[in-house]
Structures are given as structure tokens and as C-alpha cells.
Amino acid sequence: MKKTMYFLMGLLLFGVSLLGLGGHEAKAATDYSSQFFTQVELQNKNNVASTDFKENDRVKVVYNWDLTQAVHSGETMTIPLPAQLEYVSFAPFLLKDNDGNTVAAAVVDSINNKIILTFSTFVDTHTDIKGSMFFYADFNKDNIVTDQTNSIAFPVGGDYTTLGVMIHKVTSGGGGTGTPTVVFKQGRIDAKDSSLINWTVTLNNALVDIDNAYYTDIMGAGQTLIGPVKLKYRDAYKKELYTRNESVTLNANRSFRLELGNLQDTSVVITYQTKMAGGQFSYKNTAKIGGTNIDEQTRNATVNDYSGGGEGEGNNPPPVDPPTPPEPPVNPPVTPDPETDPIVVTPTTPEVSTMIDGDNEIQIYVVKKGDTLPSIAEKFETTAQQLKIWNNLPSDEIKVGQKLIVKVTPRKVTVTSQNNVSATPTTTMKTLPQTGDTTSGVAELIGLLLALTSAAFLTRKK
Fold this sequence. Notes:
This protein is mainly β and 462 residues long. The chain has helices at 2-23, 122-125, 373-379, 384-391, 440-461; strands at residues 37-43, 52-54, 58-66, 76-80, 85-87, 93-96, 102-109, 114-119, 127-139, 148-156, 159-168, 183-189, 196-203, 210-219, 223-234, 240-246, 255-263, 267-276, 282-291, 294-304, 309-315, 353-357, 360-366, 403-410, 413-416, 424-427.
């Protein structure tokens, strides 16, 4: 009998451990891979669809997507980049609707060479959701063959779509060195912070004598000057002579001026950073150099923002009208006796709609202005954590007009009693949508083990 008791107690402890593990189980967010991507297209620098490029062309990759089933915030779509291409920018970007609401956020995984789209709470409150996404890529010279058609496979619809892309070899003409210039300017997006542009201006590489030289910089729209301007003076052999920093501010014409002094067998390199405000593709700056003995010379430079982008859209489902409650019975008014009847204060009951889901009666509340998740939980005598479980909310963030499950009441209860065991209510209750419950079977196992343990004690007593 002792062996039997030890065996039953072991089973009981094993069941409890299973229940504990089930209670802390974290359900991983679903990744739909390329399931909802419906079409892919390559575009040239003029945003025209094409499959004919040069090996040094920059390619715009455009995807369309359409959600053919309900998804939830926090779930993802992931697509890898074909081996024949390389990302131009690793900056994250957002897919927004026409009202500026974020539908999904995109992150470029440079290590695994893929893009991950994560859905926002937009998908929890909208239907018929679809959109597009684009990013820029260069050809990977190690994985293409020039002057012939390359088969490039793109993930689409859970499978792959292969595009035949003709890639032409670029041959340089002439050769030789460039003519030294008096002014040259170029810009490049910062490798660590894709919102910054690093500008470099080279003055007087031609080594002409310039008396009372000055430099004027005109900054294009959509960018802000960051930090000081650095000047590096070099000799005829481009060896650094000395450097200095200048703190400058832009005037009404979005320009600043630097006095360089007399330049004799001397060149100057000027560097500074600007921060892009976003919302435009090209950022332009102008460089000018002049002096008392030379005419002013000008050079323009443009930097294009090759970050990805896209958009999304969806429809708000029509509101569900709550069922009309029956008319309450008409009772004659009762005049309270102030000396014997206590004063009763009727609390304000929040408006809810009720629906029947199998054996459960579910109350749904529409979020009003000023509501918070804890305040709603207090109204319905529950907890914010329970509301998040019922409604699959990743955080306490809610929106006006959002519908929340606030109470679940079983409609059928069966009570049984046998062998002097305490009566236990057994509730027939379907799993609520999105609750993530995984432990009901384990709980039944625990009940069975407890019953077996009790029976074993009674047998031993007899």
C-alpha cells in the first residue's frame, strides 16, 4: 500500500509541475513569412518597371501584400533578400495609411539579410488590410553574371517568383586622371545613423593662388546643420598643415560663410554633418569659393535617401448594435421613510453589449474618451492583466472606439457529488478567441489524481 501511495503522490507532483509550466508558457508570435506578399517588381531610377539594368545601377524592389486572414499586433512577415542583391540602407521604416496611422514597422536585418515587418495594433481594429513596401538594392558583383540574363528568385505567396534580369557590364572609357578643381563637393549618408549626411568640400586642389579666399555654403531644404564645421589646411603634397573648427549658423538664405585667408600652394578640406528631416528623396547643397583675384566658382552636390518605405490601408468594421433589452416591469413608486429606510446610492453602470458564444455570455465595452485599461478593469471588477489576456493586448495602450471583452460568464453549471467528495462545479466553457489558454487538460489531470489519492487513503483506512 505504501508503494501505491508513493506512486500516486509522484503522479500528483508531476501533474502540478506540468500545471506550473503551462501557466508560464509564452506563446511565440506568428511569422507568416512571404504568405501575404502577392507581387514583386523591379524598378529603375525613373521608378519604371524594368528587368534590364547595368551592373552598377541601383534597383528599387517593390512588393505588394494583402492580408487574406485575420492577424494580430506583434505578428510578423519576413522575406529574405536574394543573393544577387545587397541592401543600400539598413534604416528601419514605417508603413502608414493616409491618416498617418502606422500599419506595420519594418526592420532590415543586415546579419541574416532579410526584412521583418511587424504589425501594429492597426490590424486589431481594421479589416481588408493591404499595402505595399519598397527598398533599394545594388547588385552583388560576386553573385551575378554580366551581359546575360540572371534568374533571381524572390519570395512571394509562400513560394518564389523568379525574374529574368538582364545585367550589362559597365566599361570605363578613356582612363587617366581627373583635372584638379578649385571647388568640389560630395555627400554620403552616415553608415551608423541613416538620418545624417556627411558632407565633404575640397577647395583649391588646383593649387592656384587665391587672395582673401572665402567659402560660401548654401544648404538645401529638409536638413539641419549639426555641430561645428571642420577645416583642414593642406600643402601642395596634400599633407595636413593644421585644422580648426568653426561654429556657424545659417542666415535667412540658409547659408553660411567662412573666411579662408590667402591660399598659396594650399588646399582646404571642409567637413560637416546635416540631419535629414525626412519626407523627401533628394537633399541638395551648394558650395562656392571666391577671392579678390578670382571669379566665384560653384559646385552642387545631391544626396539621395535610399531608405525603404511603403504604405498600408484597411477598413473600420461597422459597429455592432447591442441587443434591445426587455422593458422592465412597471412598479408603483414607493415613498421612502427617511427615519427607517437607508439612503441607497446607485452607481453609474458602464454601457456594454452582450453576446452569446456557445456556453458563455460575453460582455463587450466600447472604449470612451478618458478611459484607461486600469479604469475599465475597476469598472467591471476585474484586473487590467485579465483584460489584456481576454483581448490579446500586448500593452495597456487602448484607443477610443476600440471594443474590449470585459466580462465572461458561463451559462451552464453542473454540480455532482459522489462518495462524500465535496461537490465541484464543472463549467462547460468554450475557449475564448485569443486567450492563449493551454492548461485546461492539465487541470483535469490534477483533479483525477487528487480523486485517486483520496480513494487510496480510504482503502487503506478500511
